[in-house]
Amino acid sequence: MSDAKIALVLLSHERAERVNRMVDRWRSITRPYLIVVAFGGDASEFESIKGRKVFVDDSRLRTTDHQRERQSYTEVLRKSVQSIADDDWDALYLAEFDMLPIVSDLWKRLEQRAEAENADLLGHRVWRVDGTFHPHYSNLATAPEWFEWIRTFSIREESAVVLSCMGCGQRWRREAIQAVVDIGEPVRAYLELHLPTAAHHLGYRVRGLSDQDQFVSSDQLATSAIPSMKQNGAWVVHPVKGEWA
Question: pTM of the full predicted structure?
Answer without folding.
Answer: 0.93
